[in-house]
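User: I'm putting together notes for a lab meeting next week and I want to include a structural view of one of the chains we've been expressing. I don't have a solved structure, so I'd like a prediction I can at least talk through. The sequence is below, exactly as it appears in our construct file.
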Amino acid sequence: IEAGMSGSSAAPCRFAHYFAICGIDTETGLEPDELAALYQWLEADRQGRDPDTAATGENFEQSPLKRTFKSKVLARYPQNVEWNPFDQDAVNMLCMPKGLSFRTQADQRDPQFHSFIITREDGSRTYGFVHTFYEEVTSPQICSAMHTLYQMHNAESTPSSSSSSSSMDSLASSLDEADSPTSSSSSSRRAGGYDSSRDTLYVSKALCLITPMPFMHACRRFLSQLHRAVTADVAPPLPLESYVHNILYEVPLPAPGRSLKFHGVYEPIVCQRPGLGELQLADFPLAEAFTLLGAENLVQVFTCTLLEMQILLYSHDYQRLMTVAEGITTLLFPFQWQHVYVPILPASLLHFLDAPVPYLMGLQSKEGTDRSKLELPQEANLCFVDVDNHYIELPEDFPQFPNKTELIQELSEVLLSFGLSANTGAPPRTRTSPGSTPGSTPSTPGRERKTVALRQLEDDGRNGNLAVEELAVLELLQGNATLERLQALTKRTGVTVARVDALRAGVKAQGTEGQGGRTAAEEEELRNAKLNVQLREVFASRFTTMFADYEAFVIQSAPDLESWLTNREQMHNFDKASFLSDQPEPYLPFLSHFIETQMFATFVDNKIMSQWEEKEPLLRVFDARIDKARLYNVRAPSHRSSSYQRCSILKESAQAIEQRLMKIDHTAIHPHLLDMKIGQGKYAQGFFPKLQADVLNAGPTNNKWSHRTATAQRRKDRHRQQTEHLALDNDLKEKYMQEARSLGKNLRQPKLSDLSPAVIAQTNWKFVEGLLKECRMKTKRMLVEKMGREAVELGHGEANITGLEENTLIASLCDLLERIWSHGLQVKQGKSALWSHLLHYQAREEKLEQQQQAESPVSQVPERRKSDCFLAMPSLRVFLIQDMRHIQSMSEIKTDVGRARAWIRLSLEKKLLSQHLKQLLSRQALTKKLYKRYAFLRCEEEKEQFLFHLLSLNAVDYFCFTSVFTTIMIPYRVVIIPIKKLSNAMTTSNPWVCVSGELGDSGIMQIPKNVLEMTFDCQNLGKLTTVQLGHDNAGLLAKWLVDCVMVRNEITGHTYRFPCGRWLGKGVDDGSLERVLIGELVVPSGEEDSGRGCRTPPLQRSPSQTRRISITSLSGRGYKPTSAQIQEAIGESVNNIIKHFHKPEKERGSLTVLLCGENSLVAALEQFFHHGFKSARLFQKTVFVWDFVEKAVAYMESADQMGDLQETAEPLGMTCQSLCHYVNSINSTPRNIGKDGKFQLLVCLGARDRLLPQWLPLLVECPLILRMYEDTALLRDRSTVSTLIGVLETIHDFPITLEASLVKGIDL
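Assistant: Thanks for the context. Below is the predicted structure for the 1308-residue chain, given as structure tokens.
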């Protein structure tokens, strides 16, 4: 025990934790892979076949050599390492993701290399490196078992084609389908059959190193040397145990910033580890990921990863899957992928593909199967990467990465400098895989990477036939991946090397010994390392510039770690709105999505926790870079520019690596003889033996660095105990930390080991809970953001939602709904699960409708309004299918995913989302038909809660449909409501109407005589702002008293009321034949809306008073505001205008309302001018303020002609002219607007052109004022007027633009 303890105490800085061997267990013999069988069972269940028939016995359709058999971990050394417990199932599953594979001497038996990763629950990772080779089967039982299976198979199979078409087979069948053509019609040699009398049987065996850090190249070379030792004619200098013991216990991890040399069986192996300030270690060749996908595609997949979509990699080669997955995740620096990460998905875990969470998974493709055969449960949010065909399928409309083209350009230049092309753009999809001539076997990266020595062999023409004695030449190839291949090939007949993509080797043909006496393989490794780091630096520098100021927006609100962790969920820890308002416009679509992701949230959490804990390593490097960048260029206020900054440290980063590899810092102890008995450690050539466990299970006791770390460990322990006493109990804290960190994540990692149906159910249960939690968080966030505005009015902090942010939140809600609808789907139809459910529902409802109509042929008259005296909008039926039809008729939307998104937006805008979905799910028979038992939509309680969370969204107004689909045609309905008691219901004149909104206007439309309701179709007008209403004054009954106009958008149901309350006609009121009416959104009331929850008051408006009726008109006589109220109203209206301009552009609402609506500037000034105005005269017509203005202008013009104004200062004369000019233009307009309308126009134009404060003194100075105003009038009080002028001047800083409907026909 003592020895074991000391050996393991040093393990945190051991290079490798375990050495394991996987293969066939001769004791138990051939066992079909149960997991594969379980998967078949699940698959059969999913496709609705009878699961039991599918799983009985073995799958006879497949030829026995192609079936999956169970592999076992045959041995592992040491038995256990305390901080990295050995997970036997996971290692076995990932070493041989498909179980054992068998071959005969006729098949290809090249060794393969692949890596894997095990992610533990807490997100920490362990790497595995696997060298798989074929070993002759010596056990007679196994040979005869295989023989028997073949006989059974041949007896069973009929001449018909044997390949099963179930998608299970297409996914789980063995790797090298193409190696042996399958036609099982006869047991001929072609069928790749096996006959124990004449064939030799081989079975796969895997050597695996499990390490804490991804030193891929070093492990690859070590394992291939170890295998070579077994197959070599001459036994290696030492027993195999010595080498394994050496790498397990005597080779340390290199210290940060150092390089390390250790010894394999035949030659030394070098690895290096980046320093503390550099990007963390990533040994997988990025160049390969770029050449496989092309720079453009890789950047797109990278963007999908940043936005946390579902990413599925697809390739026949495990190592490629790993290379691309690790490549993309290392580029995320300083962020980290926070969700399910399984670069190699074992066949038995395929049901994980319907996980309703973001994931990054790799799936092995079967040779010759088409992507179209692959049934993926959910594609609305899926990025599918076909690695072998350089082809990707992207989710619909996701934002592009900022400066994408410049980024790709810079990456291409880096690749070119290393002699690689960044084949931009995916070539058309071809069936043959790259780098292989049609008909040859598809190439694996090892076969494609041709190094110098191999090329020389080829050029010499010797490769036609390599005789055995020429093996000497092969010594040049030591450590090269192609070595084992060539050796295996030379054993039969000689070698033919497939045509290889010369670019991929990329090594400039120097001598075999590179500079400084390094071998070609080392040269290549150095190039790879340099290229890797330069490509990563390009990405890192993008983030350093994009997030250079992120710290300023982190909200540090908690006094200590404990309180922060306990309130983590309620805390707002990043000021998103201010951050976005600080970014250049082109970046916003991407950034607004990105700052909502889990990886960004975790990044900010790490930043906050770094006050109390040691900084997370990636964050430390990132912060150091930002500080350095600040030192070099103090950022001027121009930082909002979106110009592209290239990475400036490419050279330095590559130099650091080169220097480390040139000058080795540390050499590990050489392998040496162990304390073994004579005769131990013998083995037969070509067979990898079980090693001597006693010498391998414990490390050396007197190792100097193990001692060093043991003391360091003791020191650490002591320190930890102290901190534990100080802080809260560490376990509790850990638990908090885990909970806080996993906030919003559902299930980080699937457990790879135990996969009983119970565990699958458990996993699904976690998914269901996670989805519900996510729904709660999202709806809450949407409410908080949206209600922020009202909260501000009540004095709670800052309102901050931009149209952009709202869009992001809604997009993420759409994505969540798609994920919920695709969880546990029985059969997938179309790319959008939600839309396909809606279509099923629609089909059923329409069928029912037809049946009803057939039964009762009475024509259904829609309810019309009761009687003509009560004239209002006919109510709009709430009808789910109607909304679907609106969307189906929109030609702008081309795909199902798009339709589903549009439908969600429309339902949100109508405040019917929860109600519609409830209705959809109320058809339980349909839900049962479409969904498996465990699906979210069939968990009653969670479903109810989910609908309730969505119901809360009815509390706020969304315009997310109208504002996005701006070009569609929308039917509008207009109803004009006259005041019957006081005017003719009939008029003889011809009325017309023109409706305007934020996006345009309908143009003037004639209303048929005496019809007070009409509908028209028009391109989306957006939120409605004004209605112009008028008539041509024809006939005798040409006077018309209108109460209001109602306009409704027939798709969204939004109804606007445009109050009027005035006459239209010559000789009544102010003689106006047309009026511009200002609209407000009507809050629906009444029984049909009772389910819709409360609602926000209309934007920027105090609770509305009754429509201001012109002070001179009918009922206005009673109401006289006091002078204090008038002054307050003016201040209020000006304030509102200023506030309007301080809001972000996307959410300002209508300026017209603030200028001309209720409580607007015009209304307030009207009251000001009316105060003390002598309007009603005995026996005379009513006098209007406009009359006063006209008279004042007439006076000024005559005074001007007489020369009275000559001696006044020049600017005053100019002002005088401008006022006269404006008033005359307004009077001479062809429009028939009345006197109040003209006054309104003058105020609006004066505000727009910043002239109001200059005009006021002119009116006040005019002698007419004495005649037309009382002494007490506000207009005659000097100090009040000068205050008013001061208030009006404050509007000058803002660009006021007037709506076209206000200034039509006026040209100033």
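A couple of points you could mention at the meeting. The radius of gyration is 40 Å. The mean pLDDT is 75.

User: Perfect, that's what I needed.
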